[in-house]
Write a structure and sequence with these properties.
By secondary structure, this protein is of the alpha+beta class. Helices cover 32% and strands 32% of the residues.
Amino acid sequence: MSMIDAADIEAIERATLAALAPRDMEERGGWLLPFEPGTIGRAKSAVPLRHDRPDPAVVPMIEQRYAAHALAPRFRLAEEASLAPLHSALRLRGYRAEQPTRVEIASAAATASPGGDAAVTLSEAADEAWASVYLGPGFDPVDGACRIRAFRRARNAVFAQLRTAGNTVAVGVAAFGFGWATVHGMRTALAYRRRGLARRVLAALARAALERGFDRIVLQVEEANAAALALYAGVGFRPAWRYRYWLAAD
C-alpha cells in the first residue's frame, strides 16, 4: 500500500465519524465537529481534515460551538510538526494532551481470511448476542452501552461475531465509505483472550471489505494497548499517524 496523502487523511477522518454516527455534527473551516455525549472520544472531539494548514484562530470558534451543544470542547490532533502552532495555542489556553493513539492502515487482501471462518458470522445489524460482549464481566457497562448505541447507528456497516460453545465471545464492526473500510469495536470476552480470536474476527471483516470492493482498512488503537498493537502489526497494519486528545485542564 502506498503512503497516504492529504486526500486520504480527509477520507479517513470522514469515514471514522460516519462509522461512529454522532448525534450531530458540523463542518466548519476545514474541521469536523462531532457532538456526542458519552464516552467515545472520537465522537465528541473536533478534528481537522488536513494536517498541513493549522490555524490557531479557529480555537475560540470551536469552543463556542461545543458550548452551544452543552459539551466541553475537545480536540483530536495529529502529532505532526505542521500542527505545532495549534498545539502551542491550546497549551496557552490551558489544554493538556493525553491518550496517545495510532491510526493504522493495512491492505484487506493481506489481512483477510482466504477461505472464510465458519465460527465467525457476519450481519448488517448488531444483535443482542453481539452487544453482550460489551456488557460482559470486566467491562465498564456505561462505556459499553455508549459504544453499542454508536455502532448500531452506523450506515453501510457489517458486524462480526465469533461463537464458541454457543456463546458469542469476540466481536468487531467494519463500516464502508470514502474509499476505506473502518474497523471499530474489536472486543474479546476477558475469559477468551490470547486465543487468536480477535485475529479471526479481523480477518473476517477484511474479507467482507474485499467482497464490497474495499482494499484499504483503517483502525485506531491506543498506544497503551500493547496486545492490540502486536495483533495488528502481525497482520500487516502499519502506522499512518499518531494523535492525542486535547482537553481543557480541570
